[in-house]
TrEMBL record:
<dbReference type="InterPro" id="IPR004733">
    <property type="entry name" value="PurM_cligase"/>
</dbReference>
<dbReference type="Pfam" id="PF02769">
    <property type="entry name" value="AIRS_C"/>
</dbReference>
<dbReference type="GO" id="GO:0006189">
    <property type="term" value="P:'de novo' IMP biosynthetic process"/>
</dbReference>
<feature type="domain" description="PurM-like N-terminal">
    <location>
        <begin position="44"/>
        <end position="148"/>
    </location>
</feature>
<keyword id="KW-0963">Cytoplasm</keyword>
<dbReference type="Pfam" id="PF00586">
    <property type="entry name" value="AIRS"/>
</dbReference>
<dbReference type="InterPro" id="IPR010918">
    <property type="entry name" value="PurM-like_C_dom"/>
</dbReference>
<dbReference type="GO" id="GO:0046084">
    <property type="term" value="P:adenine biosynthetic process"/>
</dbReference>
<comment type="pathway">
    <text>Purine metabolism; IMP biosynthesis via de novo pathway; 5-amino-1-(5-phospho-D-ribosyl)imidazole from N(2)-formyl-N(1)-(5-phospho-D-ribosyl)glycinamide: step 2/2.</text>
</comment>
<keyword id="KW-0547">Nucleotide-binding</keyword>
<keyword id="KW-0658">Purine biosynthesis</keyword>
<dbReference type="GO" id="GO:0005829">
    <property type="term" value="C:cytosol"/>
</dbReference>
<dbReference type="GO" id="GO:0004641">
    <property type="term" value="F:phosphoribosylformylglycinamidine cyclo-ligase activity"/>
</dbReference>
<keyword id="KW-0436">Ligase</keyword>
<dbReference type="InterPro" id="IPR036676">
    <property type="entry name" value="PurM-like_C_sf"/>
</dbReference>
<comment type="similarity">
    <text>Belongs to the AIR synthase family.</text>
</comment>
<protein>
    <recommendedName>
        <fullName>Phosphoribosylformylglycinamidine cyclo-ligase</fullName>
        <ecNumber>6.3.3.1</ecNumber>
    </recommendedName>
</protein>
Length: 332
C-alpha cells in the first residue's frame, strides 16, 4: 500500500463502527443491518450531493480539509429533514492528476465529519482523468444512506395553518450560491481571498470556506413527533426549499426581519446590488434549517439544550394557502 493510500486508509478506518463488516480496500463496503429487526418498518433514506464551486475557493486558497466536512454535513442535513439517522457514507473524487496530500486533506475532513456524526465511511472512488480537469482542480461528491422507521418519517403532512417556523442559524454560505458570491467578491469588489473582510478578524477566504453545519442536535427532538416538517435551506433558498415540506393547502410566511443577517450576506447583497427575492432565493441569509412545529410546542423547542448552539428563533408562521412561501418584512 502506497504512503498516500495508507494515510487515507488510516483516516477511513477511524470512522468504522462495530457494524462495519470486512476491511478497508475491498471492492465494496459492507454494513451489518441486523438491527433493523427492532423497527416496525425500516425505510432506507439516501441522498447524493456535491460541494459545487466552493471547490474553486478551496483550490485557490490551498485549503481542502473543510470541503470534506462540507460534503458529509450537507448530506446529513438532506436526510435529517426526513427524520432519518445516517449510517454510512461513500465519496467520489475526480481529478486530472492525483495530488496525494490534497486527497489526504479531503479525506481527513470527510472522516472527521463522519466520526462526529457516528457515520461509517465505508467506500469511495478516486478517478484520475487527465485532460478532464486543469492541474490542481478536482470535483467531489458524496452519497449518504440512513434509516428511519416508517412511523417516524418527517414529511410535513401534519403541518396545519397555525404552526410556527423556527429558524436555526447557518455557519455561513454552507455549499450554495458560490458562483454568484465568487463573482461579486472577485469581479465586482476586486478582492482577493486573503484580503481581510471589513469589520471582522477573518479573511474573505476563511469566511467562504467555513464548513457547512450539520444540525444533528435536531435528532433529540424527533422521538415524540414534536417536529412536523424540516427544510434544509440550500440551493433555491427559502422560496424553493421550504415549500418542499408544505402541504398543498398551506403557505409559509417568513419574516425576514426576525433575525440579524450576518455581515457576509449583507456585503454580498449590497456589493452585488441584489434585490430581496434574489438574495433569499440564492443564499441562506443566515438560516440553514427551518423547523415547523405546533404553536404549543414552540417554547419547548426554542429552549431545548439540543438546539442551543444553533441559536433557534421564531422566523414565521403558516397559514391557509396554496403551498407557497411568502417573504415579509425588511431583511437588510
Amino acid at each position: 500500500m502506497g504512503g498516500g493510500k495508507k494515510k487515507i486508509g488510516e483516516q477511513v478506518q477511524t470512522t468504522y463502527t462495530d457494524r462495519v463488516v470486512g476491511k478497508f480496500g475491498q471492492f465494496g463496503g459492507m454494513f451489518d443491518v441486523s438491527f433493523f429487526k427492532d423497527m416496525e418498518k425500516p425505510i432506507m433514506v439516501s441522498s447524493v450531493d456535491g460541494v459545487g464551486t466552493k471547490l474553486k475557493v478551496a483550490v485557490e486558497c490551498g485549503v481542502h480539509h473543510s470541503v470534506g466536512v462540507d460534503i458529509v454535513n450537507h448530506c446529513i442535513d438532506d436526510i435529517l429533514v426526513m427524520g432519518a439517522r445516517p449510517l454510512v457514507f461513500l465519496d467520489y473524487m475526480g481529478t486530472g492528476v492525483l495530488e496525494p496530500d490534497v486527497a489526504a486533506d479531503i479525506v481527513s475532513g470527510l472522516a472527521a465529519a463522519c466520526r462526529h456524526a457516528g457515520i461509517a465511511l465505508i467506500g469511495g472512488e478516486t478517478a484520475e482523468m487527465p485532460g478532464m480537469y486543469s492541474r490542481g482542480e478536482y470535483d467531489i461528491a458524496g452519497t449518504i444512506v440512513g434509516v428511519v422507521d416508517e412511523k417516524d418519517v418527517v414529511d410535513g403532512t401534519s403541518i396545519s395553518d397555525t404552526d410556527v417556523l423556527i429558524g436555526l442559524a447557518s455557519s455561513g454560505l454552507h455549499t450554495n450560491g458560490y458562483s454568484l458570491a465568487r463573482k461579486i467578491v472577485q469581479e465586482v469588489a476586486k478582492k482577493s481571498w486573503d484580503d481581510p473582510f471589513p469589520g471582522l478578524s477573518k479573511t474573505f477566504g476563511e469566511l467562504f470556506l467555513e464548513p457547512h453545519r450539520a444540525y444533528t442536535g435536531v435528532y433529540d427532538l424527533l422521538a415524540d413527533d414534536t417536529i412536523k416538517g424540516i427544510a434544509h435551506i440550500t440551493g433555491g433558498g427559502f422560496q424553493e426549499n421550504l415549500d418542499r415540506v408544505l402541504p398543498s393547502h398551506i403557505d409559509a410566511r417568513v419574516d425576514i426581519s426576525s433575525w440579524d443577517v450576518p455581515p457576509l450576506f449583507q456585503y454580498l447583497v449590497e456589493t452585488g446590488n441584489m434585490v430581496t427575492d434574489e438574495a433569499y432565493r440564492t443564499f441562506n441569509m443566515g438560516i440553514g434549517l427551518v423547523l415547523v412545529v405546533a404553536q404549543e410546542e414552540c417554547d419547548r423547542v426554542l429552549q431545548s439544550p439540543a438546539l442551543a448552539e444553533y441559536g433557534p428563533r421564531v422566523i414565521g408562521r403558516t397559514q391557509s394557502g396554496s403551498g407557497t412561501v411568502i417573504l415579509d418584512g425588511q431583511g437588510i
